[in-house]
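Q: My collaborator sent me two sequences in one message, no labels, and asked for predicted structures for both. Can we handle them in order? The first one she listed is below.
A: Yes, handling them in the order given. First sequence, followed by its structure tokens:
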Amino acid sequence: MQHHIEWDNTFFKEVQANFERVGRQMHLDENILLRLRVPEKALMVSIPFRRDNGKVEVVTGYRVQHNDTLGPYKGGLRYNPHVNMGEVSALAMMMTWKSAIVGLPLGGAKGGVAIDPHPLSRQELQRVTRRFTIEILNFIGPDSDIPAPDMGTNEQVMAWIMDTYSQQKGHAIPGVVTGKPIDIGGSLGRREAPGRGVVYAIISAAEKIKMKLDSKIRVAIQGYGQVGGAAAKKMEKIGCKVIAVSDHTCALYNPNGLKFDSLSAYLAQNKVLKGYPEGECITNEELLEIDCDVLIPAAIERVIHKDNAKKLKCRILAEGANGPTTNEADQIIRERGDIFVIPDILANAGGVVVSYFEWVQDLQNLFWKEKEINHRLWEMMSDAFEKVYLTAQKEKVDMRTAALMTAIRKVSTAMLTRGLYP
């Protein structure tokens, strides 16, 4: 197969290799295998923007569209200095699988800007975002490609994209992005959706392995951002004990449990977990190896690797982040056979499910109550879990392979039905 320098990236190669492994295992049509192993379109743009001191800086932006057989492209937008074409392509492919697993009429895309948003002023962040939107204007739209927030972006960034896009088109188009503030067409329950979805998947998994989710269940969460925070809140609500959480400054451990409200109050005041008085400070590496029942990696990719996969001490591994486990580590965990893995494309699909709900509400100009949204999310997540679990049983494969099989089958059936143009 030909080798593309643009996708010469470890993360992309792993996602691609995983797809190829499962595709061959299920005897996928060779033409479809070739088509799906690379994105359909990839856009790379230069973004000049003015700093507050008057100086102009130029950063690079990306938008990658992997597949739109089932419907418009959909996927997050991250602001991070390490963003590159390979990473964005890997995440775009994962978005295709994610939408297919939960049965959404959407395809997979991802975008990013190679910039650290933290030192930027609000004005600088706004200028970068608006200029990026102009550069990708003809690439996105409510019927073609719908961005959403990801690492380093938030509701405000989505509001600026929506406004810039609408200004160019001459009227308000809320459906161009999801994850917007409620007052301009955002959806209730969207912010908590990825974390809540992770917990819904954990509830389904616990039932399968006869694990009673009560106060004896110890939960460790790596990455206490939007996903990790929402997961902690929901795990505490169903009666489990969150014993460890972390961010980029420190990991906190307290065997008696860390309280969500107290952590939130501390974070609101100090912005970081470091210095929180009711927990012992350990490293992020130590957190992953802690003795717990449920481990939720909810930060960045590739944190569980061949060196620590043997040392995991959890019964359920629920991947809140995208690609937190390397292929080598996955192999080790499979051979161990004592950890129930809920793979990322299933575990964290709650975000795209409620993004889809937001998009539908925007297109209809009809909004739903939060209770209805959470109920529909639960239905879609538990149905998807059941489908993947049954595939795993029937094909005698692990959950990650089963999740990919479910997604690939759905996309390839649609591709074969539509045929090849011209």
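Q: And the one she listed second?
A: Here it is, processed independently of the first:
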Amino acid sequence: MEYTTKLMYQSNYWYNDGLKKANIRDMSGAVTSLRRSLQYNRENIAARNLLGLVYYGRGDVVEALVEWILSKNFQAEDNIADDFIGRIQEVPGELESINQAVKLFNQSIELAGQNGEDLAIIQLKKAIAAHPSYVKAHQLLALLYIQTEQFSAARKELRTAHKLDTTDEITLRYMHEITQIRKSRPSRARDRGKGEEARQEQTVTYNIGNETIIQPASSVFKENSGLHTFLNIAVGVLVGAAVMWFLIMPAVSVGRQKKLNERVVSFSDRIATQEAQISALKTELEEYRANSEESEDLKAQSASTQESYEIVLDIARHVSAEDMSDKEMLEQILKVSPDSLGKAGKKRYDEVADALFPRMCEKLYKTAKDEFDARDYDGAISSLEKVVKMNEGYQDGNALLLLAQTFEKKGEQDKANIRYQRLVQKYKGKEASQKAQKALDGQNDSKGTKEKKGQSGQDDN
């Protein structure tokens, strides 16, 4: 109990720390603190909801939805996460805009990797227009501006990113880089001055009356004027082709894309929600893995929980696909410890159990009775233990009674008595409970008779 109290205290401490940082828009620091809070108590609803808000403030909407869905799994009623999710869904097209911004961001990364900085900048501007609080898009756009020496535009993007998250390491590193470039620019200016002097040396200056005439020292320019004209025409043709490709052709394809986009939009909300739910389950599983590092006991528990989650998800797929036998699915699902699962995992486990357990209990119970009648006690015990694990009170306790009787027939009286006592304590009023009590009474009577015989024998001696 004391250990649990310490965990709760630590979780609340880091939540308060994250709240302070979020209030001053130290989003990166808030994420770190809130993650620590959830490591101590993954069911800290306030911390999880605040973490979702912090992600949302940085423009990471998918990550925010994951945290809010997990929060709803832990507390379905009276949870402000419902309001947060509802506000996103109420705004028409917001999820589609966010989805489009993410796609444009990913495309810009690929273009930048292929030396297509100009196209990447265009894509990023569209992403920011669709999703203005997307910190990662502002950072990447600033980096491309730095690379193409558009330092004023880079500073503007970094100031926007800094307002959204005042302590993001990437933003601060880029701002430092621009500062260093600004310090080195005076030396570049001196170099440009020397170049200007050199150009002046290549000109001839003389006066005619009150006018000063400057002309080139040689006639190289005149000699190459025809070549220059040809080059200007070629550049004009290339610019015209570029305008055609990048401005006119996209407009032509808009009509064809419009119908496709309308169909995509109709599915985008559902896709985003499903992806968030899958991410929520994966996040819950990853939290078990992370928490396992705290101690050896937690490590063993986490390994069991991880295996249980994987089995439940695998069996759920087989139940839907109907591509595995009931016997094989039962062997796997009986390895799961339901109490170790979170709410989302427990819900999926119950769905699988409701679909599989009733028909398997009926089948195995019938098999066990046949095995008992044939004196195959080992087989009967194996079948009945599975039935009892699925449903201890199956057939009003008769399955548990038959298991006790089988152990008794096999000569394992202690195991039989444990089942008899379980029936008497938990299933009072049932016929199986009365039979169990009668079996226990019979043993006591038999034991008392033996003790009396032993005492009379000693008296005769």
